Amino acid sequence: MSNKSAPPTFEQATNRRQKARAAGLDPNYWYAVEHVSAMKPGDVREVKFWGTSVALYRDDNGRFHAVEDRCAHRQLPLHIGVVKGDRLVCQYHGWEYNGAGELVSVAHSTFGKGLPKCKLRNYPTRVRYGLVWIFFGDPARADTTAMPEAPELEGDDRWECVPVDFTWRAHHSMIIDNVSDFTHAFLHRKYKPFENAELKRLETKGDVVELEYDTKVGGGAISGRFVDRARVDTNAMELAYEYPYQRSSTDGKIKHWCFLLPIDECTTRVFFLFYFDSFVVPFTHVPIPRRLMRPFLKISNELLIKPLLREDEIAVQAEQRGYEAHWDAPTLDLNPAVHAFQALTVRKWEEHLASQKAAVQDRLVKLRARADQDSDLQ
To answer: What is the pairing mode between strands 82-84 and 64-68?
Structure first.
């Protein structure tokens, strides 16, 4: 089947897959947006979340700030501006904003009128695991909203990790399906990150889908040489779609997190954190010294991890094109985990839309009450 019309919106969708492919991600979570190392003090760049543009900048003291990406004066994007101390300055007339989005100075005469009263929206930011995070939702919820936890990446004896990222032209739900559905081992027959997967457990607990595969992990001709199979059981893997994040663990020794930044309806930036208790020198059980793990991981990323993930990139981008052309084709997924992932994505987006609708109705009630009160006073 094929259809030349555009895929349905969330409201128009008639089945779970269509809804999953149109759903956004709830902004009331922390989202990874950039590598800390990619921005030096004085840098500014645009970050997009579901079509909303944010100017992320690093001040001269190294702190990160995120504000609405527009100057209140002529609406120029602030990400083309410059950083001055702890302020972001519009490129056009030199209007200066602090990290709270407040206009604090202009580079020209105000003609005796003083500074206009204007304030841009600002967004809470954090730094964790080598990444910059932004909270795009209700800022009042930021401090009480948990972030992904990787205790192995903290402390003096932390495991080494070198994050990698990609920007793929694919909806975020397709990427969750890809990284958690091990029926696509054929795609990776060259690198063999997993083989012969059999789903042994699948449970949805609140906002988490947990699953476990019996599978041979790390069977590649090169990568397999570095796994200490005497210490690590590589015959099973636990995974979870911990909305809106994804993670996995092989015997508690090989772990990863996947963080999604939904740029728009068909574009997603994907951050991967792969980290290991240790690798061994090939053909021995001698661990690679911890001090050598970081340079080893950088080399591994370039020679193994990125080429492997580029196979996923080709697949999910092709799937996006296929869905746009054949969105009304029957759903034929055999792995029940895929249905669970999509159901969670749909439910969370429905909950977000309902909360937005309730908030709008609440504001309308308050406005009507205020209008009635003013009428009574007259």
So the answer is: unpaired
Q: Are the beta carbons of 43 and 29 closer than 8 angstroms?
A: no
244-263, pLDDT tens digit by residue? 999 999 999 999 999 999 99
Residue 282: asked if its preceding bond is cis (omega within 30°), the reply is no
273: closest CA among 309, 237, 243, 303? 309
Q: Under CATH, which number does the domain 164-340 receive? A: 3.90.380.10
- How far, in Å, CA of 105 to CA of 8, rounded? 46
Least-confidence region, from 6-10, 171-175, 215-219, 230-234: 230-234
For domain 32-141, give the CATH number.
2.102.10.10
Tokens for 186? 């054929």
Where residue 33 falls (left for φ over 0; alpha for ψ -120 to 50; beta otherwise) is alpha
- To the nearest 10°, report the CA torsion of 68, 73, 75, 80: -70
Residue intervals of the chain classified under CATH 2.102.10.10 are 32-141
* Distance from the Cα of residue 244 to its chain's centroid: 8
Contact 131, 35 (CB under 8 A): yes
What is d(CA 313, CA 197) in angstroms, rounded to the nearest whole number?
A: 21
Predicted confidence (pLDDT) per residue in 69-96, tens digit: 999 999 999 999 999 999 999 998 999 9
How far is Cα 303 from Cα 370, in angstroms, rounded to an integer?
64
Q: Does residue 66 contact residue 162 with C-beta atoms inside 8 Å? A: no
Let me know: does 258 contact 269? Beta carbons within 8 Å. Answer: no
Beta-carbon count within 10 A of 323 CB = 19
Rounded Cα gap, residues 112 and 116, in angstroms: 11
Place of tokens 């009428």: 375
